[in-house]
Structure formats: structure tokens, C-alpha cells
Amino acid sequence: MTQNVIEVNGVSKAFGGVQANKDISLTVPDGKITGLIGPNGSGKTTLFNSIVGYHPIDEGSIRFEGREISKLRVQQIARLGLLRTFQQTRIFKNMNCVENMLIAVPHRKMTMLDMFDRANPEEMERAEMLLEFVGLYSKRKLTAGSLSFGQQKLLEFAMALMNEPKVLLLDEPTAGINPTLINGLIDRLKKANSEFGITLLIIEHNMRVIMNMADTIYCLAHGKMLASGTPEDIQNDQRVIDAYLGAH
Ligand SMILES: Nc1ncnc2c1ncn2[C@@H]1O[C@H](COP(=O)(O)OP(=O)(O)OP(=O)(O)O)[C@@H](O)[C@H]1O
After folding, report:
1. Residues with Cβ within 8 Å of residue 11, at least 6 apart in sequence
2. ipTM above 0.85, yes or no
3. 60 near 23, Cβ under 8 Å?
4. CATH number of 1-81+166-248
5. What range(s) does the ABC transporter domain occupy (predicted)?
6. What ranges do the domains of the chain cover?
């Protein structure tokens, strides 16, 4: 039987008078791809932030591999193997791709100079392998700032993989990416799941993308869980259709 690697139970979070999440429960099965959708402002990013320890929750429980993590801090949670990426990329634009990859691994207490002068050969090899995996090997010596936005997102994805996460939370991985690059990105995300065994939880506005990737999809609306099911269930769920139509 598939284990749930993340279990969110009855989570609520308010910012002043704004109830961003209300009594949210969801599970993320180990080794699968789970989608999280919902109109703008429905509380998706808030839920991501709660899961990775970015802010305390008001109520509820968040378990990772059976362990309560809702009181742990971001770095402690990251060390357990639960990482996230952001809507806006967080790369160092003046550094080249390989340097960005090496700096993505936070465990070493080294100065920057040490890091590049005496880069661990295994990490260097892994950095180059992952740049190859996302299709950026030929650009590895270029500064990250000179890459297109889509390529920067691929770099950020590869940087997250440097940390060998068990679970990766991706916040709108295809946002702002040229449609011709999107299929390549979907392919790499699926491969990271199937070949590296990384469980994915993905926030995505592009319905074609999420319907094509996810095993299960959860839909939020107004901070509450509106529906969940297979992509087919969700696509045909009148409540989901109404939530999106009502939002635009
Ligand atoms: N740090 C914060 N301070 C105050 N209000 C916040 C904060 N973060 C989120 N909110 C509010 O909480 C609600 C949910 O926002 P959230 O960003 O989680 O939604 P979302 O579904 O991720 O939206 P989008 O799809 O536009 O990214 C919104 O009303 C937002 O304004």
C-alpha cells in the first residue's frame, strides 16, 4: 500500500482578518505527483508556506513521514528532505550555472572561495549531471542572468535536485515559460518523479499541465478545500468549474 509522505490535517492560517486557509486536509502519497489548484488568492501558496515551515499555523497538524513538522523551522524541514521552489526564481544572476548549483547545497560551512576552489568532485559531477538532465549543460559556464526566464526556472529546478529531496513542492513551475519549453519541463518533472523517485506536490495554473501530470488533484477556493480527485474527476466537477468561472 502507498504510504502518505505528507499528511495535512485540519490546517488553518489567518493573516490578520484574512482567513487564508481554513480547515485544510490533504495527503501526498509517496512516489506520486499531486496537484494543487485553485483561483488566485485561494490559499495555495499559504499552504505551501505552512508545510515547509515558513510561518506557524494557527490550527491543525502537518506530518512528514509520520512525524509532526508544524513546529519545525524551514531549515530543519529542508534537512528532512522536504523542499520547495518559488513562483519567482531565486538564483544568483551574476554567478554561472555550475556556481549556482554548488551554492544550492547549504550543508557545508565554507566560504564562497573555498566552495569554488575546492568543490567536492562528487558534487561537481552531480551538478553537471543535473544540468545535463535539465538541458542546460552547454550553458553551464554562462551567468544565470543571461539565461531566458524558462531556462532560469530549469536551473532552479536543478538546484533543488542538488539537495536530493524526497519531496519537492513546486510553486507554478511553468508560469512565464514559453510554451515550447513547457513540454520539456513537464517531461523533466515526470522523469524526476519516475527516475529519481522524488514525490512532487505542484501548484499549477495551467490546467493542461496539471491534468497531464498529476495522479491526484486538490482544488482550493476561498481558503477552503473545494474538491479532490483524479484529473478526470476534477475536470468534470461542477464546483471546480464554477470556482474558476466565478474568479474570472
Ligand atoms: N503574508 C501575508 N500577509 C497578509 N495576507 C496574506 C499573506 N499571504 C497571503 N495573504 C492573503 O491570503 C490569501 C491567500 O493567498 P495565497 O497567496 O495563499 O493564494 P494563492 O492561491 O497562492 O494565490 P495565487 O494563485 O495568486 O498565487 C490572499 O487573500 C492573500 O492576500
Report:
1. 21, 23, 24, 25, 47, 50, 57, 59, 60, 61, 62, 70
2. yes
3. yes
4. 3.40.50.300
5. 6-247
6. 1-81+166-248, 92-164
Residue whose CB lies within 8 A of the most ligand 1 atoms, among 45, 219, 224, for a mutation test: 45
Say if residues 3 and 167 touch (Cβ distance below 8 Å): no
Angle in degrees, CA 178, 184, 188, rounded to 5: 130
CA 183 to chain centre: 17
Q: What is the pLDDT along the chain (248 residues), one digit of tens a residue?
A: 569 999 999 999 999 999 999 999 999 999 999 999 999 999 999 999 999 999 999 999 999 999 999 999 998 999 999 998 866 667 899 999 999 999 888 655 455 555 555 567 888 999 999 999 999 999 999 999 999 988 998 999 999 999 899 999 999 988 888 888 888 889 999 999 999 999 999 999 888 899 999 999 999 999 999 999 999 999 999 999 998 876 65
Q: At 6, is the secondary structure helix, strand, or coil?
A: strand
C-alpha cell at 59: 490550527
pTM for this model (two decimals): 0.91
Q: How many angstroms separate the alpha carbon of residue 248 from the centre of ligand 1?
A: 17
| 45 ligand 1 Cβ < 6 A | yes
Is the Cβ atom of 46 under 6 angstroms away from ligand 1?
Answer: yes
